[in-house]
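Internal tracking record. Fields below are filled automatically when a chain is submitted to the structure queue. Please do not edit lines marked as system-generated. If the sequence contains nonstandard residues, flag them in the REMARKS field before resubmitting.
Queue: standard
Priority: normal
Entity type: single polypeptide chain
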Amino acid sequence: METRTKNITKTDIAVIGAGPVGLFMVFEAGFLGYKCAVIDSLPHIGGQLSALYPEKPIYDIPGYPSVLAGDIVEKLAEQGEPFDPQYILGNPVSELTEQKDGSFIVGTATDEIHCKVVIIAAGMGVFTPRRPPLENLADYENTSVFYSVQKKAQFEGKSIVIAGGGDSAVDWAVELANSAKHIHVIHSRNSFRAAEETVRQMRELEAACKVTVHAPAQLSELHGKDGQLEQVVIADLEGNKTELEADNLLCFFGMSPALGPINDWNIDLAGKKIAVEASTMQTTRPGILAIGDITDYLGKLDLILTGFAEGAIAAKTAQGIIDPDKKFKLVYTPSKGVPAA
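SYSTEM-GENERATED OUTPUT FOLLOWS
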């Protein structure tokens, strides 16, 4: 049996997770003079911002009253570019080995990353969408059935069934209603878990005959051919079925997070998160730090801007590990500047 040689990357810091916090870690480490390799199981950078809602606006990024999630990713990549990061994408981290000198080898199916510090910025871990129990669902996935919206334009003029009752389902019903042919919203309960204001907007669109809400109801059958959906059948609580014309089905039943191999890395956990010391972002295993939504400590807020601040703290901690004899000096970017990309 042929043994495939892995690609070897040597760097200062291995960042596990290419979401917004992982991307900003590149800048913070680079500003202190350290190189990063960023690993992600997704084939692109941006984490959930790119995978789930690249064209949705975000309102709590300082300096941006409103900014599209995809644009945040683009700007973060641009910010880190002068520090020449290496992106290793498309394969999840499968192993982590500590060397005798305290350094680490982070492994994927195709790569080995040799580093001095590991920083886990993996959001809530590895996410997989919760799928409805429909017999022929796989026949339509990624052609007519989707679990996120990558490009709004692909749904223009389409009849769309949106299944779910949370923020994602209601947000996209409102967002797509004015460009789609029609929107059907399917939810198993009369009440929605989404923000009250967004639910109000959806009800206004319902009154304007742009959205039809079917609740309580659930998905029952899918019909079409060659991967193209033509009809979605729904059922009420009594089992009465209704046939809906549909070009696309968007399922928003949430994501199932899992820590994956992190469970085996001898790191103390706090439920499904990693316990860290807030003043250093250090886990219970020396040399392994964690930042972003995957972390837990007293007073933790799961916000992107919190993760950005944690990245700055982690960079300081990483310097103490990589160059223990070097005194940390806080330098402001207007004074030092950054190298040209």
